[in-house]
Specification:
Elements: E1 5-13, E2 26-27, E3 32-36, E4 42-46, E5 52-57, E6 65-70, E7 78-79, E8 84-87, E9 94-100
Parallel strand pairs: 1-9
Antiparallel strand pairs: 1-2, 1-5, 3-4, 3-6, 6-8, 7-9
Amino acid sequence: MLADSFFSGRAYLDANNNGEKDDADTPLQGATFIARDDRGAEFGALTDSQGAAFITFPGGSRYPVTLRMEHPKESPLYRVDPAEIVLQAASGDNFQFLFFSP
């Protein structure tokens, strides 16, 4: 039996609109963190007040796994690239996604 797979991501609001994560950027609550495996199975979670979201693939995942973060619903925010992160193997990284307001 495959072990569970875990993925974590954080969303931030680019406070100074410089397109880079820096200390001025604030956590973004209500964004949707999504992980999709090579079979198309998707799991998602909303970011909390610290901008963090965690996903568990029960029974493991098959790579590659694609991670993405969508802005909070009904929000005027846009995501700064990359739109997706593709993992070829398990990673203990906490992936960061940045959003800006036009």
